[in-house]
Write a structure and sequence with these properties.
This protein is mainly alpha-helical. Helix content is about 70%, strand content about 5%. α1 runs antiparallel to α2. This is Cobalt transporter.
């Protein structure tokens, strides 16, 4: 599992404990989902940028066919990440 950090770089604990929390359990789960989805969405954007750089390097090296396949994968990846972004916005509206 990935480690999650807040905007200040502090480690955010998640999913590692089984203590019972009856009074705010639902709110904590919503916050955890928001944090995790935010992280994953941003992380995917970073991977997209890295893959786009790879495409350019492959094209420059004469690997056009391979670069094109990665480009197609990046397009599908971006489409999926757009859905994650939509889910993130919907979740933010319900939580706040």
């Amino acid at each position: 599992m990935h480690k999650l950090y807040d905007e200040n770089g502090n480690l955010i604990p998640h999913g590692a404990h089984e203590e019972e929390h009856h009074h705010h359990e639902g709110e904590e789960k919503k916050d955890e989902n928001l944090i995790l989805l935010t992280y994953m969405h941003q992380h995917n954007e970073q991977h997209t940028a890295e893959l786009e750089e790879m495409v350019q390097k492959l094209e420059d090296g004469g690997y056009g066919e391979e670069a094109e396949e990665i480009r197609k994968g990046v397009a599908a990846f971006q489409e999926g990440n757009a859905h994650l972004g939509q889910a993130l916005e919907l979740l933010k509206k319900k939580i706040q």
